[in-house]
């Protein structure tokens, strides 16, 4: 492989990783309902690799100056698809209460809606630190609760539950911040609150 071919491959790799993250979802949807110890560990590994690609594709896109409109669009969609499907799966397996998964899904859909409304108004709502920590803990929690059993001497279930409850608190708080931030910047008052 020539240097030009390597550079071209690395410039398109972030989008390929994003698509791979989406491709992991059907695999999880097939595996997780088996709910057997070995399959759960395998599903947890698949989720961990998919979640790591979220960090890796952003890093590579910045490093090789290959941020594309497609990547900017697909990356957050892939994240929400992966986490949303996993929340449904772990709730269906009884690893988390359904209301916790439901609140997290509703918050993510709500924040996406707020971002779309902000875009219509001509401004952008940046991700805040609470939102970043929510995402990090949510990924840890989802991965641990896919495994949902002690493995290699590590208490995956307790760690997963703690991560998910803290992530829920951060999700609700950051969602409130995004909402109030939108209302503070918007040119109209869609809820009639002023």
How are the SSEs ordered, and which strands pair?
Blueprint: H1 3-31, H2 37-63, H3 69-92, H4 98-121, H5 129-147, E1 150-151, E2 154-155, H6 156-185
Antiparallel strand pairs: 1-2
Helix pairs in contact: 1-2, 1-3, 2-5, 3-4, 3-5, 4-6, 5-6
Rg, please? 18 Å
Tell how many strands the DSSP assignment holds.
Answer: 2
Order of strands in the sheet with most strands: 1-2
Low-confidence stretches: none
Strand content is: under 5%
How much helicity do the residues have? over 70%
User: Would you tell me the structural class of the helices and strands?
Assistant: mainly alpha
Largest sheet: 2 strands, antiparallel
Describe this structure in words.
- The chain is mostly helical.
- The protein has 6 helices and 2 strands.
- It has helices at 3-31, 37-63, 69-92, 98-121, 129-147, 156-185, and strands spanning 150-151, 154-155.
- It has a two-stranded antiparallel ribbon with strand order 1-2.
- A hairpin with a 2-residue loop joins strand 1 (150-151) and strand 2.
- It is flat.
- The model has no long low-confidence stretch (mean pLDDT 87).
């Amino acid at each position: 492989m020539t240097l030009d071919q390597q550079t071209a491959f690395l410039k398109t790799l972030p989008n390929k990783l994003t698509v791979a993250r989406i491709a992991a979802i059907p695999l999880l949807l097939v595996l997780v309902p088996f709910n057997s110890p070995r399959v759960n560990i395998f599903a947890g590994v698949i989720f961990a690799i998919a979640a790591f690609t979220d960090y890796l594709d952003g890093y590579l896109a910045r490093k090789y100056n290959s941020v594309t409109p497609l990547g900017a669009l697909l990356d957050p969609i892939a994240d929400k698809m992966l986490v949303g499907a996993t929340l449904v799966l772990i709730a269906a397996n009884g690893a988390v209460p359904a209301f916790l998964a439901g609140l997290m899904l509703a918050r993510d859909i709500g924040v996406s809606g707020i971002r779309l409304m902000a875009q219509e108004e001509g401004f952008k709502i940046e991700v805040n630190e609470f939102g970043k920590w929510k995402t990090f803990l949510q990924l840890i929690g989802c991965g641990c609760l896919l495994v949902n059993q002690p493995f290699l001497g590590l208490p995956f279930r307790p760690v997963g539950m703690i991560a998910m409850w803290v992530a829920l608190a951060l999700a609700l708080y950051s969602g409130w911040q995004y909402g109030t931030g939108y209302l503070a910047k918007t040119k109209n008052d869609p809820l009639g609150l002023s």
